[in-house]
Amino acid sequence: MKISTDTRLNKSKSISSIQYSVISLISKNQNLGVIVDDQVYPLSNNNESTPLLHRGQAPISSTGYKYAIISSHQVLDIENFTRPCPSDNIQTNDYYGRPWNSYPNLTRLPTLLPPLDIMDRIQSDLHIENEIPTIHLYGNQTGIDYMHHHQLDRTVRIELHMVYISPKDIKVFKNITLSVSGMSTRKTDKLSYKVKLAKTQDLYGYRRIKLKSMALDMSYMRDSLGYAITESIGLPGSGHSYVRVYINDRAIGLFGLTEHIKSDWVKNVFGHGSKDYKHGALYTANIRTGQGNATTEEQPFQVLKTQLSKILNKVNHENATSSLSYLGSDLSAYSAGQYSVRVKPSDGDKADFTCIMDLTKFIQSQPTTPVNNTVVPLWADKMNVDSFLRGLALEIVISNSDGYFGMANNFILFQDTQHNRMVFSEQDFDTIMGIGNYNISLTMGEDYTQFPGFQTRALMPRLMQVPRFKQQFEFYFGEFNKKLVNPNILGRRIDQLFQMLSEDVV
């Protein structure tokens, strides 16, 4: 439907009028209007928190409605589709230029395995996976520019405000802390960010979130697929959804929204969000050990270039310091940073690296020749073996080049104090499914033992000597391939994500 530039701007209110709401960034001399039954009704921006949200009253449509950008009573741009008539008791925040608020054809992956027994995750609306909310970060532009000009400096944090707008909700957060996130992606044009809300605030139960740029992944899908598969096989990980992000008066693109793994995440995933949940420390593998915080422009560039080269081109087998190799009885060898403490124990004490040392010592002491199943209880005393079997089978199935096998990176070890053992899981999936320079015949071949790092890391050559563990690992490996990572299941979701994301990726 074409609307001529002399269309009357109707300012009257109808008895049967409803509120229309649309998100759009427009110039100061422009306005938004809603076209209802060939009439244009102006919308206004009276929200002090964000200039992105435009609202106004107009009649309930009999044939549908669309939005237009207007200036000086002239229609400058108009949506090329008609939105269906809204119900008089349902009001949504539309997004200009997108014909849907909830994408209708995105199906969830099947639940292949139940969550680990230790997990007790809260129900949260943080990730509505078939919706794309909007996040507007705003505040002092000088501070924003400083952060971006010092993107390699991990100590830089700035204070801003944030507005979160979903199709059905609006939340305003004052005095949030924003910082650049990531490692290799700090040198990309599109940065990732960490958001920390004030202590009295939360976004659907979470105080800390990440906005992931997906700068290494032109498909914008790998993180989403990796986290969805992790959930499907019952491992503790972040959820993942998409958001459109603005900083002040600039649209900076489509981002992945994930949970930042900190203390509130531990309580939400393992303790059902209880503030009284007692837990041990959580460690993350960290390949930046010994590099410190980079504050100059030259040295960190070389560091990041070297890191990215390793991630994409090398497998640094047993030399990787977070490879679960036994480093001797000197406890300081394990607290050098390779097992970075992400969450302290709930009792307030410092994280004790004895549990890491004991675990690696136990692994080292196990034979690399076949044994019988009588050793199963010994392993179960040290680790949640099922979490390791699930997670490491996942690494191979999704061809993860930056996990335990590849770079001894991007995995977590959670100290389960109830059973006095370690729980394993994966995180960060931007270098899976083809990103990496491994020999494809090894990463995609039928012989899983040829996956880079499988036979040279400390754990698997010993774990696979136990018949029960080997049988369970191969069962998981086969199930993940047959029931998840195949054209019929994952391929369908890839096609659906492509359709859902295409306009925003463009």
Question: Describe it for me?
Answer:
The chain has a seven-stranded mixed β-barrel. Strands 3-2-5-6 form a four-stranded antiparallel beta sheet, with no helix packed on it. Strands 16-15-17-18 form a four-stranded antiparallel beta sheet. A hairpin with a 2-residue loop joins β5 and β6. The chain has eleven helices and 18 strands. The two termini are 24 Å apart. The chain is elongated and about 80 Å long. By secondary structure, it is an alpha+beta fold.
Relative helix content: 10-25%
Q: Uncertain runs with pLDDT below 50, 5 residues or more?
A: 4-8, 290-305, 310-320
What's the total number of strands?
18
Shape: elongated
Helix count, per DSSP?
Answer: 11
Order of the strands making up the biggest sheet: 8-9-10-11-12-14-13
| Strand percentage | 15-25%
Instruction: Please give the radius of gyration in angstroms.
Output: 25 Å
The total domain count is: 3
Structural class: alpha+beta
Largest sheet: 7 strands, mixed, barrel
Give the terminus-to-terminus CA distance.
24 Å
Question: Quick check: average pLDDT?
Answer: 88
Q: Which H/E pattern describes the elements?
A: EEEEEEEEHEEEEHEEHEHEHHHEEHHHH
InterPro entries: Spore_coat_CotH_CotH2/3/7
